[in-house]
Amino acid sequence: MISHRSLFLRHLAQTSDTPLAIEIEKASGVYLYTKEGKAILDMISGIAVSNIGHCHPAVVKAVQQQSETYMHLMVYGELIQSPQVLLAEALCKTLPSDMDRVYFVNSGSEAVEGALKLAKRFTGRRNLISCYNAYHGSSHGSLSVMGNEFFKQAFRPLLPGVSHIRFGEVKDLHLINEQTAAFIIEPIQGEAGIVSAGSIYFKALHKRCKETGCLLIFDEIQSGFGRTGRFWYLEQLGITPDILVCAKGMGGGMPIGAFISSNEIMSSLTHDPFLGHITTFGGHPVSCAASLATLKTILADELHLKAAAKGDAFCKRLIHPAILEIRGAGLLMAIELGDAGLVQRTIARALEKGLLTDWFLFKDTALRLAPPLTITDEEIEKACTILLESLSEASS
C-alpha cells in the first residue's frame, strides 16, 4: 500500500521543496501526536489558530451539534441562521458600540479583500497604504498590500494605487491624504517578527486618518481573540479603527474570518451595486458555531487576561546567552537570536525533542512562539526546557 507520505508528495500541491511532512494522527490541547505515537508540543498553534488548544471539547461539541442540525443552506446573507446571528452579536459585544456590523468570510485573506473593497466603496477613493514588512494574506488584493517585495515580485501586476510607509514612523503619516481610501495595518506586526509601535504612533495615525477621511483598517488576524492579553489588541492601544479584520484564532480550528465595521460604512455594500461583496461559504454555520464556542471559552476562562502572565513566564525562563531579545505581547512572541542559521538548527533540534516552533517570513533570525492560550505552567516549563536544550545544542 502506498504510504500517506508518498501520496502527500505525489498529489498535494506543495508550497516549498522542504515541507515538514510529519504525519499527524490526532491532536489534543497543546499536543500533536504522530502516527508513531510521538507527542509534539505545539508552540505555534497552527500559526496562531488553535487559541484554545486542539480539539477543545466545547468546540468539538458545537461542531457535532451544528453539523447534525444543518450545514450549508444558501449563499451568505439570504437566510437567518442562528449560528451566524449569535456569533455576530457576541463579537459586537467585545467591541466599541459603533462597530456593530459583521461580515463573515472563510479566511483572513478573504477578510482583507472584503475590507479593502469596503473602504473603496464607502470613500469612492482608489488608493491604499500599508506598511513595509506587513503581512495581510496571499490573494491578489491582500498580496498587493503586503509590505515585502520578495513574496510579491513573481505575481505582478497587482493592485494599482498601493504604497507603503514605515511602521511606527510618525514622520511618514503625511503620505496619507484625501486620495487614500484606507490605511491597513497590523497593530502588532506578525511576520516582521512581532514588532509593536506604541500608543503615541497609533493616536497620531488615527488622527491623520480622521483629518483626511481615510478609513483605518486594523488587521487583527494574528493578534485577536485573546492572544495578546486582551480580547483585541486595539483595547491596549485605546484606538477604534473604522474596520477590523479577524480570522485565525477565531474558529477554534475551523475556517472562518470576518471584517467588522459600523452600519454606516458596511451598508454601502448593499447598493450600487447590490451584492457588493458575496461569498458562498462565508459564515458557514458549523464554523460559526465553533467560533462562538471559542469566544465563550476565552471569556469564561479569562484566557485573554491570563495570556500576559503566561507570556511573562516564558520570558523569565528563556534566559540564554544566544537570546538577544524577546519581543511580544501576551502569547504572541519572537525570540531574537540574530542568526538565521541558528534559528533553523534550533527548530530542527526542538522538533527532534518533541517541540514544534517556527520562524517568521520577514524575520528569519527569530523563533516564533504562539502556543495555545490554554497552556499550563507545567507545559510552559517543559517547553522552555526543550527550547533551551535545543538552543544550546544548536549553538555548539
Q: Which descriptors would you attach to this protein?
A:
396 residues; alpha/beta; Aspartate Aminotransferase, domain 1; Aspartate Aminotransferase, domain 2; seven-stranded mixed sheet; four-stranded mixed sheet; 36% helix
Descriptive notes:
With 396 residues, this protein is of the alpha/beta class. It folds into two domains: 4-49 and 306-395, Alpha-Beta Complex (Aspartate Aminotransferase, domain 1), CATH 3.90.1150; 57-300, 3-Layer(aba) Sandwich (Aspartate Aminotransferase, domain 2), CATH 3.40.640.10. It is 36% helix and 18% strand. It contains 13 helices and 17 strands. It has helices spanning 4-11, 45-48, 57-69, 82-93, 108-123, 140-144, 199-212, 234-237, 263-266, 285-300, 303-317, 340-352, 377-395, and strands spanning 24-28, 31-34, 39-42, 101-105, 127-131, 162-165, 180-185, 188-189, 195-196, 215-219, 243-246, 257-261, 325-329, 332-336, 355-356, 358-360, 363-369. The strands form four sheets. Strands 4-12-11-10-7-5-6 form a seven-stranded mixed sheet, sandwiched between helices. Strands 1-2-3-15 form a four-stranded mixed sheet. Strand 13 (325-329) and strand 14 (332-336) form a beta hairpin. The longest helix has 19 residues, at 377-395. The radius of gyration is 21 Å and the shape is globular.
